[in-house]
Description:
By secondary structure, this protein is of the alpha+beta class. The chain has 12 helices and 12 strands. The protein has helices at residues 3-21, 30-39, 46-59, 82-94, 100-111, 116-122, 139-151, 225-228, 233-239, 260-267, 291-299, 310-326; strands spanning 62-66, 72-77, 154-163, 169-171, 178-188, 191-198, 203-208, 212-221, 247-256, 274-276, 280-289, 304-308. The strands form 3 sheets. Strands 3, 4, 5, 6, 7 and 8 form a 6-stranded antiparallel sheet that branches. Strands 10-11-9-12 form a 4-stranded antiparallel sheet. Strand 1 and strand 2 form a beta hairpin. The mean pLDDT is 84.
Amino acid sequence: MARSSMQKKKILLVMKELLEKTDENHPLSMPDLILMLSENGISAERKSIYHDIEVLREFGIDIENRREKPAGYYVANRDFELPELKILVDAVQCTRFITKKKSDELIRKLENLASKSQAVQLQRQVFIVNRNKVMNENIYYSVDQIHTAISQNAKIRFQYFEWTVAKKTRLRREGMFYEISPWALTWDDENYYMIGYDRMGECIKHYRVDKMINLEVMKRSREGKELFARFDLVSYSQKVFGMFGGEEEEIRLVCKNELAGVMIDRFGREVSLRPVGDESFIITVRVSVSRQFFGWLFALGDRVRIEGPSRVAGQFIDQMKVVSEVYK
């Protein structure tokens, strides 16, 4: 091998060794680096390695020389600090829409952003109660295709499935393809959703990405531009409980003061909380009235009451009666 090629390989090996094996507590000495190069068939002097380290520093790699024991060279700062990588690993493990297989693959890639000794600390297990991973491995490619369609202003077509009692998948609409104009992706209730315009229904709809299969980007341009020009994704997510649709209503809720945080978390800090006496407040919000919304209210117990419209309060009472009949 020519001398110039050997020099290029030498500096790359030094960079790789420092990035993979070193941190503040695990430096490599000059003899360590000389031995590593020798094992790779390269004879090197200290002076040339000093020069390589300076070149790597100029390139942007933060290499420090530790004088006290353990002494040696190490990469001091990386693109991601160890606490940041730990948060990312925890997020990957906790995220429901990422399959177990893909979680393991992503975590291994995140480990490559740290030294080997730090990577051991990333091999952690976060225990989440009742958190099942999805089964559809194609979700990553579907998300990418949806992003592509949005950037290209194109419609998409796909089939949509549901689960049966026998734990088998069954295509909705007897396997007919949905043709939707995608406008946004959102992560809600631990699932990825695509929000788009349905020309057939002339309305905005949302679909769980992990239940979409055989997705294709079409050559037709998207529709619904005028509708989405005034679309507020945050407001939409606040109104739609668990991404289950329903008739949108403006409702008034009377809540105990201890629910102030619950309401702000759900509807945002801009929501108005008007005091009613010393122990309660009233809040007026727009929501999609559905069984999921009623379930959310029921979980809050006697600390919240639907003040109006009376029609919605009646629907809530009727829903509770229907449920109570199941237990008679």
